[in-house]
What we know:
Elements: H1 21-29, E1 35-38, H2 41-44, H3 48-61, E2 65-68, H4 82-119, H5 135-143, H6 149-156, H7 160-175
Helix pairs in contact: 3-4, 5-6, 6-7
Amino acid sequence: MSVPEENIFTDKQSGKDFERPQYKKLIKKLKQDDLLYIKSIDRLGRNYEEIQNQWRILTKEKKIDIVVLDMPLLDTRRGRDLMGTFLSDIVLQVLSFVAENERDNIRHRQAEGIAAAKARGVRFGRPPVPLPESYHRVYKQWKAGKITGTEAARECGMPLSTFRYRAELYEKSMLL
């Protein structure tokens, strides 16, 4: 089976919701009797209720068929009778639950990893830009009220919010 490149939709962001650009394009392009192949149900989404809702929209409202490649039981072309629909619905519910549960587990493990890294002293974010050579002089003028914060920030070549933040850090370091 070969699928034309223009019929392949891949989002780079998480499947936590359905506000994904490529997914939206796909939905607009789909029409009745189209066939949608999905690699895995967790590639469709990671939220139990939203997966159920999107599945209903795709199969009932848009009237398209869906094949989940790694789960042959999720093939809407087969078993259109009551038993086939019932089995598909049960499998979809179980897999949707598993997908959402895995997303929750990933977030939990990520939070644990971040907390452990912080406990080891790992710093997150970009390293701070070194202060300009004139900072000490400009800071003193600003602190004495000789220049405004805006003027001080401009002289140091930084936004006012950054100047104030760095001034706070500077004051704390002088207390040590």
